[in-house]
Inverse folding.
């Protein structure tokens, strides 16, 4: 029976961690280890985890000596994982009871390296379902063009551990937004086989103060993330024009995201200058000719303070 390593980075989520852990413990598929990486929480998160660890030996606790952020915590979990497969759960999220049993059956059947689920977003009592394309569910190895819409999250996926470890794929330390997207791009660059399952077994909680909900310095941090990709040896070494297009189109989508998020108008003046300067950076880094081949090139024209053709 295949083993699953469930990696949960934990930092100050005492209100939510119990539901998260219970969702992992109550899976119908039992052969799992639950690796909780405590990133120096200052609330009662650790006490809650320890209570459940005393009752169930599948829970392993790793206490970091310094607060290093979610990427470092996840990488620590990957290094400690002994399962055949890995899933990541954020400590304020939860998974449905059959995610592992159904997911493992699918990924084993497909022979893929990464299985992508749909997911639910819970926001003030409202639930938004983000579904995968059901027409692609029976394809066991998707083309890159079919994968590009599933690169933003590392949660709501099952990864083959050997693929991640053999290719030395890590989350980028020091990057505080879009680290999931970078991780998945690196998987794509290493020719990972992706497949889909038309189920929404992962649940995301939108809460005030969460990393994904923060606006202060958000564009600055996004630009840092995008530059990380463009300057990485992995991006520089890829020969495929299609993969380069997918990368740049994803970066352009990141720009559009900040104009569509809640309360964006409050920060728009700050966004405008930062993003316009980054667009100039893209022109010098990637080249105008290549940028104009991107399907979403008009976004750059729309959001630049300066006229561009």
């Amino acid at each position: 029976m295949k083993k699953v390593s469930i990696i949960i980075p934990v930092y100050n989520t005492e209100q939510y961690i119990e539901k998260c852990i219970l969702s992992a413990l109550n899976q119908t598929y039992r052969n799992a280890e639950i690796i909780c990486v405590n990133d120096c929480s200052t609330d009662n998160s650790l006490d809650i985890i320890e209570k459940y660890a005393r009752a169930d030996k599948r829970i392993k606790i790793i206490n970091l000596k310094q607060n290093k952020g979610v990427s470092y915590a996840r990488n620590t979990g990957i290094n400690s994982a002994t399962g055949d497969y890995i899933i990541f759960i954020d400590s304020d999220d939860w998974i449905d009871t059959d995610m592992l049993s159904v997911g493992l059956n699918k990924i084993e059947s497909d022979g893929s390296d990464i299985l992508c689920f749909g997911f639910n977003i819970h926001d003030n009592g409202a639930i938004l379902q983000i579904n995968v394309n059901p027409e692609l569910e029976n394809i066991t190895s998707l083309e890159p063009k079919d994968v590009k819409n599933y690169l933003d999250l590392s949660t709501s996926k099952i990864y083959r551990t050997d693929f991640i470890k053999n290719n030395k794929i890590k989350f980028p330390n020091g990057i505080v937004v879009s680290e999931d997207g970078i991780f998945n791009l690196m998987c794509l660059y290493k020719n990972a086989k992706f497949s889909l399952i038309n189920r929404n077994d992962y649940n995301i909680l939108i809460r005030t103060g969460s990393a994904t909900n923060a606006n202060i310095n958000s564009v600055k941090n996004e630009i840092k993330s995008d530059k990380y990709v463009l300057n990485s040896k992995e991006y520089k070494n890829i020969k495929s024009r299609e993969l380069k297009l997918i990368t740049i189109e994803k970066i352009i989508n990141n720009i559009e995201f900040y104009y569509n998020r809640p309360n964006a108008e409050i920060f728009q003046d700050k966004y405008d200058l930062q993003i316009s300067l980054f667009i100039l950076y893209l022109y010098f880094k990637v080249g105008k000719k290549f940028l104009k081949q991107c399907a979403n090139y008009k976004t750059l024209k729309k959001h630049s303070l300066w006229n561009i053709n």
Notes: The longest strand covers residues 194-205. The chain has a mean pLDDT of 94. Residues 272 and 305 are 7 Å apart (CA to CA). The beta strands are 4-10, 32-38, 59-63, 85-88, 94-95, 114-123, 126-130, 157-160, 194-205.
